[in-house]
Design goal:
The protein is mainly alpha-helical. It contains five helices and no strands. Helix 1 runs antiparallel to helix 2 and helix 3 runs antiparallel to helix 4. The chain starts with a helix and ends in a 5-residue tail after the last helix.
Length: 120
């Protein structure tokens, strides 16, 4: 799920960087970045989430912590992005909550059963 979230972030980031008119900024907002700022931020979060998701296959405890941190930061970022695209932000926040729940509930023992790796 974290890999999909990363892909979604990267796709939105690329779309915003390619087409600046994709986002219509609100009239007055605390964080009034240009479209390039939001595009690069989405792209950076996309890459971070993809790297964190691939790292989860190692069944390391640090990979779970990194995955949780990336998902929490994604929730915060999408909270601030909500005035630009409310429905999309709500969907991603919901998926991030599922990722956080999954990473806090299932540990290395379950990864060993599923992937056949040993916890490190």
């Amino acid at each position: 799920m974290l890999l999909l979230i990363g892909l979604f972030h990267a796709i939105v980031g690329m779309a915003v960087l390619i087409d600046e008119d994709l986002l219509s900024p609100p009239d007055s907002y605390l964080i009034s970045w240009g479209t390039h700022g939001w595009g690069w931020l989405h792209l950076a979060f996309g890459v971070a989430a993809i790297v964190a998701a691939v790292n989860l296959f190692s069944a390391r405890h640090s990979a779970r912590v990194i995955g949780i941190v990336v998902a929490v930061l994604s929730v915060v970022k999408n909270f601030f992005f909500a005035p630009y695209s409310g429905v999309w932000s709500a969907i991603i926040v919901g998926l991030d909550v599922l990722v956080i729940w999954g990473l806090t509930q299932y540990g290395p023992e379950q990864a060993k059963k599923v992937y056949g790796t040993r916890p490190r």
